[in-house]
């Protein structure tokens, strides 16, 4: 490669790096202004709905309160461990309420919804 070509390559590389940095900053600005969807009415959903189960974790993350998020996550995980232990002691297998699960050598693993459509959730996006 000739010296002149090297300079052109370096110039293009610098331009690319600056453009990427500018794009990153624009994305960061846009994303920081987005509002997370919130459940309008927790009474309108099942207590096992992931939005309800993980709501305190989400609040901690969105509020940048990492201690609260970590504690809420531990609470969710401890509750799930407790439920699994209770099922095991009773000899019960976990069966999903909304999906069928199958696994075979021929077709592999499959998870299909029981209902064709998921009912709408009472979720709003704050403006």
TrEMBL record:
Domain of life per record: Eukaryota
Classification via InterPro entries: OSBP_sf (IPR037239)
Family: Belongs to the OSBP family.
Protein name (database record): OXYSTEROL-BINDING PROTEIN-RELATED
Organism: Salix purpurea
């Amino acid at each position: 490669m000739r010296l002149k070509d090297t300079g052109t390559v370096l110039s293009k590389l610098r331009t690319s790096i600056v453009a990427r940095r500018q794009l990153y900053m624009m994305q960061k600005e846009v994303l920081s202004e987005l509002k997370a969807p919130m459940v309008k009415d927790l009474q309108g959903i099942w207590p096992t709905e992931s939005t309800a189960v993980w709501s305190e974790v989400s609040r901690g993350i969105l509020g940048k309160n990492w201690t609260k998020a970590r504690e809420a996550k531990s609470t969710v995980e401890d509750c799930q461990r407790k439920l699994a232990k209770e099922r095991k002691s009773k000899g019960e297998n976990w069966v999903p309420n909304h999906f069928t699960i199958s696994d075979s050598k021929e077709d592999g693993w499959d998870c299909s919804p029981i209902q064709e459509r998921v009912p709408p959730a009472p979720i709003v996006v704050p403006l």
